[in-house]
UniProtKB/TrEMBL annotation:
Residues 121-163 form the Transposase IS66 zinc-finger binding domain. Residues 465-502 form the Transposase IS66 C-terminal domain. Residues 89-110 are annotated as: Disordered. It comes from Microbulbifer harenosus. It comes from the Bacteria. The lineage of its organism: Bacteria, Pseudomonadati, Pseudomonadota, Gammaproteobacteria, Cellvibrionales. It holds the Pfam family LZ_Tnp_IS66. This is IS66 family transposase. Residues 43-113 form the Transposase TnpC homeodomain domain.
């Protein structure tokens, strides 16, 4: 605690400086409290809307299947908002709340005894502690098809002389005082986001395994996990933006429009490092629209080489230090579609020349960046120069507006961006790598149908970022999430990078 200055010993000038300092600190405190109050009011307003949506009567034209999916999304959102409010108010004394009584876990489930005892049973006074009792808590674990119970026993040890009780601390959990283990939570997230199983399906699967867990409880767990894992996703985004070359792509995702009887088109944006980068990572960003401002916000401050398609939303970044890298696969696709439609000989010839570029890339895949650049300069660049001349010649023969003219125009208008890969061996020839990272969302759309809210979409994007990044680094996503959620409650904020997917295996061996 800082000792207050002796005002009698200060002169007039020092008193004025002290008064100015105190006024500045007071103004800063007021500003901080105001911002905290604004955040709390925002969260409470969002919570009220979610609860009204969940508990109020709805006239939305949704069928029973869609309503079931929406209910679990709203319940997860409510749990996430409540957890953020608890964190926000952690420093403010709160009145004690009566904890609801939890039903005991079924006695027929197999149990694993885990004992927690103090490291030392010798009292500070020199006496040997005596065991006087124990506290028992149970956590629900799950391996596919089988529930088990972890029975945690924390012995109580007392010193008769000084009447002191010693007990091992309660192991911290992602969900404080909850029954699920990190293994059960990891399975829940993997099934929902990687295997695309909505909670109502998981509810039935768990019931067949011997324990009925309500969908509302599962949704609460999902919401709380999303909040707990968000700092890890933020750290992953920060490391991704340190890469000199990135891929970017976006795909539509239906999202329920509040107060309407239908969904509207939201978008999931994917940003990932190249397949040859030292950091293998992908981060998804969920947004309500396809506006280019979403890409500018995510990439704010980053100046590197961006591999992307011709979408105008990325263009603003190219005037602020980002270098555009075109996608040869998109250029090729224009000619492929043309050839598929009418067996165009011009399209076939273009495809043959582009195929030669990809043959060189297969050879360059195992090379270093510098050797790859040299190979492209010697072999790919002459092919590109020849292809450019060929395209210019045939474009002059094509009438404006024809399918062939449009296919050629796409390449010619982006020619500089399409050929920049030859000048940097770390730059890929196309954007196929990120398109592969988008694919899990396309698979999920047919199962979960829509995102229930902006928050649920953002939560899905965050958890999918960790799952897909774990896969990119060769990890089993279930093993990764289980270990991370077990270690995260005690992980120092300064060392959170150890839990990122590209560092996890190394940190696990230490």
């Amino acid at each position: 605690m800082t000792t207050p200055p002796d005002l009698n010993s200060l002169n007039a000038n020092q008193l004025r400086q002290l008064a100015a300092q105190l006024l500045a600190e007071s103004a800063e405190d007021k500003k901080r409290l105001h911002n905290q109050q604004l955040l709390n009011d925002k969260l409470k307003h969002e919570l009220a809307i979610l609860k009204r949506h969940h508990f109020g009567k709805s006239s939305e034209a949704l069928n029973a299947h869609q309503t079931s999916l929406l209910d679990e999304l709203v319940q997860a959102d409510i749990a996430a908002v409540e957890m953020e409010l608890i964190r926000s108010a952690a420093s403010t004394p709160q009145p004690a709340k009566r904890q609801p009584k939890r039903s005991p876990l079924p006695p027929e489930l197999p149990r694993q005894i885990i004992e927690h005892e103090p490291d030392n049973t010798q009292c500070d006074c020199g006496c040997q502690l005596q065991r006087i009792g124990e506290d028992v808590s149970e956590k629900l674990d799950y391996t596919p098809g089988t529930f088990t119970v972890e029975r945690h026993i924390r012995g109580k040890w007392a010193c008769k002389r000084c009447e002191r009780i010693t007990q091992a601390p309660v192991p911290p959990q992602i969900i404080d005082k909850g029954i699920p283990t990190s293994g059960l939570l990891a399975h829940l997230l993997i099934a929902k986001y990687a295997d695309h199983l909505p909670l109502y399906r998981q509810e039935k699967i768990f019931a067949r395994a011997g324990l009925a867990i309500s969908r509302s409880t599962l949704a609460e767990w999902v919401g709380r996990c999303g909040v707990a894992l968000q700092p890890l996703v933020d750290a992953l985004r920060k490391e991704l933006l340190q890469q000199p070359v990135l891929h970017a792509d976006e795909t539509p995702v239906p999202m329920l429009a509040p107060g309407k009887k239908k969904t509207h088109r939201a978008y999931i944006w994917a940003y990932c490092s190249t397949s040859t980068a030292t950091v293998n990572a992908v981060v998804y960003d969920f947004a309500e629209t396809r506006a280019g401002a979403n890409a500018r916000t995510f990439l704010e401050g980053w100046q590197g080489k961006l591999v992307c398609d011709d979408y105008s939303g990325y263009k603003a970044g190219f005037s602020s230090g980002i270098t555009e890298i075109g996608c040869m696969a998109h250029a090729r696709r224009k000619f492929y579609d043309l050839h598929l439609a009418n067996k165009s000989q011009i399209a076939e010839q273009a495809l043959q020349q582009i195929q030669r570029l990809y043959d060189i890339e297969r050879e360059a895949k195992a090379l270093t960046a510098e050797a790859r650049k040299q190979l492209r300069q010697e072999h790919s660049k002459p092919i590109l120069e020849s292809l450019h001349q060929w395209l210019m010649q045939h474009r002059q023969k094509m009438p404006n507006g024809s399918a062939t003219a449009k296919a050629i125009d796409y390449s010619l208008k982006r020619w500089q961006a399409l050929t920049r890969y030859c000048d940097d061996g770390a730059v890929p020839i196309d954007n196929n790598h990120v398109e592969n990272q988008i694919r899990p969302w396309a698979l999920g759309r047919s199962n979960w149908l829509f995102a229930g809210s902006l928050r649920s979409g953002q939560r899905a994007a965050a958890i999918m970022s960790l799952i897909q990044s774990a896969k990119l680094n060769g990890h089993d996503p279930y093993a990764y999430l289980k270990d991370v959620m077990q270690r995260l409650p005690t992980q120092r904020a300064s060392a959170i990078g150890e839990l990122l997917p590209h560092n996890w295996a190394i940190a696990d061996k230490v």
